[in-house]
Amino acid sequence: MELKYQTGFGNDFATEAVEGALPVGRNSPQRAPLGLYAEQFSGTAFTAPRDHNKRTWTYRIRPSVMHKPFEQIDAGRFESSPFNKLPTTPNQLRWDPLPIPTDPTDLIDGVTTIAGNGDLFSQTGIAIHIYAFNKGMGDRYFYNADGEMLFVPEKGRVGFLTELGLIQAGPGEIVCIPRGLKFKVEPHPDDRELRGYICENYGAHFKLPDLGPIGANGLANPRDFETPVAWYEDREGTFEQIAKFGGNLWTCEIDHSPLDVVAWHGNYAPYKYDLKRFNTIGSISFDHPDPSIFTVLTSPSGEAGVANCDFVIFPDRWLVAEDTFRPPWYHRNVMSEYMGLIYGAYDAKEEGFVPGGGSLHNQMSAHGPDLDAFEKASNAELAPQKLSGTLAFMFESRYIIRPTKYAMETSELQHEYFEVWQRLNKNFGG
């Protein structure tokens, strides 16, 4: 399968896997070309303003209504709002990586929910999951009616076979699957262990943040986002279609592959982005700029400038500033922060925070550098410094992020995390 992409963020794309499959001049003629069925795939209300409207016209071999009735199935550790099984602690939390399964496990069976907030029924908030699997989905297909899914691979290359085309991504890249899009996941043939993070976004679609005083350029550039071209499966047999709907998993039988879109045009589509293409912006004089300068994508809330979720990265970058404490300072925040590590070491946490693990610093929970990082930064020569070989990220939300019962009881929870700050010295000499 050849991987081909179209570039741009939110573009109105047009692509066909077979010449003549796209109608010319009419969105839905009396008969779609080549005996195909026209089906609109809408990500917003029909009446959303033009610059917010998300929809794609698909031209498919069979319409999506052709399936047997759904029946609910056990969701395992794949959880959804409300996240209220335990009281939410104000303590700082950190986890070791979850192990890769040894038994054959595909993506759907390999999702573990760590935390979340909001209410999927009112389309607010997020869920944070870890995926860990070792085999492909085969004849199983999946769609999520509850939210879009932002995949952040940490180990192994993942192939996403979707209704609208093929995407492959590995560590250092991200993939966003729109709400409702059918897909399945297959590992790269050379990768047997796959793990990463998922932000399931119940709220407004992720979009590029406004740049404000930064100007016209910087951060993630629209031209660096990639959307697949049309590709399709024409397979008949007995297949399973799984839906996440209303916080539960449902299954139905289907007698053909649902990935049978031969052509499509529109702006509601999956995309990938290589995080190495992010243009970091930093201080070149004094003071440590706010981490918002590292925002790749944002899901707005009803309050301007306060996000339902921001996706923020901490990549390779130059630290060029004078009279500046280099790592992130000590902080208490109205926003809640879940942080993960894709590779390398995070400059404010050199021990205990490892790739595949995560930390949670909730609303107004104090956090900052551990003792070693503080001492190192306080005594370092203030010269230009290059951070290399590191990539951390953060899901940041205006709502308190509530850990699941599993996350609070798993052996991967580091109960001694608070110790990293206990040896900080009293330096005041007044």
Q: How would you describe this protein?
A:
By secondary structure, the protein is mostly beta strands. 3% of the residues lie in helices and 36% in strands. The strands form 6 sheets. The protein has a 9-stranded antiparallel beta sheet. The chain is globular, with a radius of gyration of 22 Å. The model has no long low-confidence stretch (mean pLDDT 94).
Reading the helices and strands in chain order gives EEEEEEEEEEEEEEEEEEEEEEEEEHEEEH
Report the CATH C-level class of the largest domain.
Answer: Mainly Beta
* Percentage of β-strand residues: 35-45%
Count of spatially separate domains: 2
The Rg value, from CA coordinates, equals 22 Å
Task: Report the CATH topology name of the largest domain.
Answer: Jelly Rolls
What class do helices, strands and sheet pairing give? mainly beta
Largest sheet: 9 strands, antiparallel
The span between the termini is 69 Å
Give the CATH superfamily of the largest domain.
Answer: Jelly Rolls
Number of helices: 2
Which consecutive residue ranges, at least 5 long each, have pLDDT under 50?
none
Q: Give the mean pLDDT.
A: 94
Percentage of residues assigned to helices: under 10%
The CATH architecture category of the largest domain equals Sandwich
Order of strands, main sheet, comes to: 1-16-20-13-10-15-8-7-28
Overall morphology: globular
Q: Please report the total strand number as a whole number.
A: 28
